[in-house]
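Hello again, I could really use a second opinion on something today. I owe you a coffee for this, so here goes:
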Amino acid sequence: MDALKHLSDATILLLPEQVDPFRHDESHLVGPLPLAVVKPRSARALRELVQLAKAEGFGLVARGAGTGKAGGCIPMERSVIVDMGEFPGTIGISHADMTLSAPASAMLKDVKMAALAAGLFYPPDPNSWDLCAFGGSLATNAGGPCACKYGMTRHWVLAVDALMDDGEVHTFGIATVKNNAGPNLAQLLVGSEGIFGILTGATVRLIPQPKQLLTLLLPVSDWHTLLDLPAALVGAGYLPSAFEFWDPAVLRELRAHGPEEAKRMPGEALALLEFDDPGCNEEDFLEGLLEVLGPEAEHLQTATDARQREALWAVRRMTSVVLKEQYPKKVSEDIVVPRSQVRAFFEGAAKLPLVTYGHLGDGNLHVNFLAAGETDPSELERNLSELFKLCLSLGGSLTGEHGIGLAKRDAFLTLMDPYQVEAVRRMKRALDPSGIFNPGKVI
């Protein structure tokens, strides 16, 4: 691409060995070689990129740190990867407004740490929070364990800056919670996976940092007793900031192949609960909690210091890695159902060859077909179709946090309400009439 060589304010990679690492993300998908990888360093570079894309007929695929799991940032035919890692900007905090502003190039870890250093808290915590880019977390509406109490990334976004079809960077939204001037276009762009434009930064709201944490490990002899617990806790007035679990099969894999902390984990199955309410370390709080947990609380364990808590969370965050190492061809889906339908989901999925762990507190379950590599493709497709249809029948969704990207595009187009699919297509045509932004993804 000779035209790209003259691009202003950008690092440009053209050699096959330079662009080859950008063919994949953390999904199982691999795309063709991109025409180039461009790392813009100014709005001028972005403007020139849009002009070139329209003139030369190639797509622009935004990329953060490449930790996505839906193939959203992999190249398609005749596309240029727009790596936002060098885009300028600094992290800034307004105590008066309780907000934080950061460029897409910032790492989410640095965003969260900046908030904590100011005595404030930015809750979104996807499993890759220490590796992913802030921009990527916005584009995918990242979730994580804390979504149980604090919701997804979009719940915290007040305003976004985005490169749009006219080649300019526009700001959508303002740095305060009250703004009722028409439809919220900032929220439309959050979670849109780069199909309407490229996010260059955002302003998010913060809250005071929680003063106390209570981290509990709940081993159970019959894992089915966990299935009604999320609804029971909420019904009794206890909303955990996280409620994770491992089913027996996943726990066996962790004990056999995980770190030392995993090998010592008790029970047939296991739940990890965390609370950050004021007074959660006090006796009255724990006594009330034990009443809700009932007989299963007999073997309840408390993480008594920061080291123990971090060890428990380290096991949770590496669960996917351990399974991937043992079953490199496994297929993982991040389906979601309402917490009131968790038991019905497992009853309906009993005949499917899957193992499960994840965010039980909000019904976002990471189901894994470990034998996918040895399964007849047609049978695997039937299993996936049955899984997705079950979730939709229970009022759930194909994906709780990873997004559609390319990995779930076919299922999205086949199973979702055709009116909704067409509505997204119309918005795509309106905001991206030239079709240059992340072509071939989602719709």
